[in-house]
Amino acid sequence: MLENFKLEGARSRSKKKTVVSVKRLLQDLGGHQPWGCPWAYLSHRQRRFSILGGPILSTSVASLLGELLHEELALRWEQLLLDDAFTGGALAWVPGRTPGSGQLVYPAGGALDRLYFQKVNLTPGSEPRVLGGPGHIRLRGPVRQVVTRTVQGEALLAVRSDYHCALWKVSKQGQPAPLQVLQVEKGATGISLSPHLPGELAICSRSGAICLWTPQDGLQQIYKDPETLVFRDPSPWRWADFTAHPRVLTVGDRTGVKMVDTQGPQGCGLLLFRGGAEASCQKGERVLLTQYLGECGPECLHPTLHLICTQFSLYLVDERLPLVPLLKWNHDLPSAPLLARLLPPPRTGLPRPLLLAGQGGELQLLHIAGEGASTPRLAGPPQSLPSRSDSLSAFAPLEPKSQWRLQERLTAPAIGLAAAIPPSANTPVLSLFQLSAAGDVFHQGLHLQADPGPDSPAPTASWTPQATASCSRWLKALLEVPPAPPVWAAPTFSHRRLLGCFEPQKAESKAPEGLRTAMAKGRLLQLRDLGLLPTEERAPAPEPGPEDELSERLEAAWEGQAAAWWERRRGSSLGPGKQPKRHKRRTQLSNTFSSLSGRLDLSDAASPPPSPERTLPAARPQPPVTPPSQESTQELWARAVPSERQQTLRDYMAELPLQGDAPGGASVPSSQTSSVRATPSRQRAAVRSGSQPHCKKPRMGF
């Protein structure tokens, strides 16, 4: 195909229509529309390209699209089963200068490509107070995960997109400053911030690679294995987190979790958890989330604890005792638990709350006790918290369409979870924030029990007047009817050339009324509805066509009455008041030649053989007829028929049906037996014309 395309270089002066400019073709295929409307412009280059490349593109493009379609369908099916893009959560709480103040960091927008920073002030016993409008940063992709951590008094913010990861440093005034942006070609699946060194970031890729980024050393790959750890699983999901040792990381996939030394050789490590008999895992159980729970502080849990969540259970694993979980609990969540948050104790000596959220918005609250060297345990039974969908009954009844929209927004999948406990002298209050896939941030204020025991009631959501007013404003904004978008119409082509000869009939036009009537009655539109037909007149009866004549003739021939049919046909076509419609020229010639035959000398002619159609009676004696002389016969022949028409006359007379002896004893001369033959009717016309004194000049030159 190279001869049909002009590549970059010197300008070609070829005027062939089979040569296409590649540069302009790529502009056309890239969406270059000089008129602004994609439907109003179709270049001739695209048409020529489709014609020239049709035989080749019909096979290669079909196979390529088939592979891409199969890959997309497989990805969509996996997302329907489990959408792991928002594992870890896309909502974070950044503490501020004073206790109870901070800002929420979350994505919003139709594509979730805008990162918002909203300052919030938490006050015990009241709703959170929003300070001003949110600031935002526009990104080049949807935000999938947001992670914050404060290390040595420095607040850091990490954001993961599909193919990019970014790191910000948040000042004490709450202003983010970008530090680094990294591109992940194969797609990022998880990020984690180090609790030991400020600015250290672990990134996981779908290719099985784990990279570590530090401000001093930059990006370095510490582990890569495209295969899963324990058994084979097709999921490309990978996860990494830190441990109690600054140079040891945990690497996880759907089959297990492994500890990897960043300073050791590639591939070396120790299994921390695997789905199998050691952990009493169920059939088909897979790892969904791993999180490091150890933090530096006087009231923290043991620094070697890790949280591992599957679709069935929750496990607490210690680095010092791998493969054997210290705690297992069946969470019974109807959806996959992809979000978990460990909060500081509300008061000194109280257990630490652990929030677990499912993808469908379900919430579980656990209290983990065991500081220092004591074994971690659950302080009281886990408690189910009210979900967003449970608050649907608190809204006033709406019309069905609005009710459906409200229910759809409240039941949207959860993609982010954040919580904070403001200082309070009375009963501690848990401020819980949830981010839905629709971009809504919901807040719940829950009263925590000072001593959660087996008989302690579950926390309940408090509906204050401020919360009711806030929900009313949100619902009003949700149900506002947006302005109708401009109706786009496809460009029309000029019809002046097609309808220029027709004059508009404004006064007598009944087309719109007839169209409305037909549409109202639900019937087809007919021509009489348009008022364009003239008054109805009875159409003439159709005459029998050639097919009917042929059928009659074949039927008569089959019955042996072909001669009678021919006579009837001749009689009906030549009846009184009718003119023959077919063979007009042949009939005129026959009449002319019949009149000529009557003047010929027929005394010396031999009688022709009898007609096969009928037998003539025996010849009776007739009175003698005085024949004219031969010279007069030749003179009449020459006078009536030009010399150049004589051969045509002979050929025509040879095609006429054979006939017996002429009436009156006249016979055709032997010299003209093969050329002068006539039917009975024509012979009778010839006898009658023989008595005429003069010959009328024949038509058509004869």
Shape by Cα distribution? elongated
Structural class estimated from helices and strands:
alpha+beta
Helix share of residues?
Answer: 10-25%
Total helical elements: 14
The portion of residues forming beta strands comes to 15-25%
Biggest sheet architecture: 5 strands, antiparallel
Number of strands: 31
| Distance from first to last alpha carbon | 69 Å
Mean pLDDT level: 76
Low-confidence stretches: 493-507, 583-590, 592-635, 659-693
Structural Rg: 52 Å
List the helices and strands and how they pair.
Blueprint lengths: L4 E2 L13 E2 H8 L14 H9 L1 H28 L10 E4 L5 E8 L5 E8 L7 E2 L4 E4 L6 E7 L2 E7 L3 E7 L5 E8 L4 E6 L7 E5 L3 E6 L3 E7 L14 E4 L5 E5 L3 E6 L8 E5 L12 E6 L12 E6 L2 E6 L8 E4 L6 E6 L9 E7 L4 E7 L7 E2 L4 E3 L14 H11 L3 E7 L8 E8 L4 E7 L17 H15 L16 H4 L11 H11 L5 H4 L15 H13 L3 H12 L10 H14 L32 H11 L5 H9 L25 H11 L12
Parallel strand pairs: 1-2
Antiparallel strand pairs: 3-4, 4-5, 5-6, 5-7, 8-9, 9-10, 10-11, 12-13, 13-14, 14-15, 16-17, 17-18, 18-19, 20-21, 21-22, 22-23, 24-25, 25-26, 26-27, 26-28, 29-30, 30-31
Helix pairs in contact: 9-10, 11-14
Protein name: TATA box-binding protein-associated factor RNA polymerase I subunit C isoform X4
GO molecular function, one term: RNA polymerase I core promoter sequence-specific DNA binding
Organism: Delphinapterus leucas (Beluga whale)
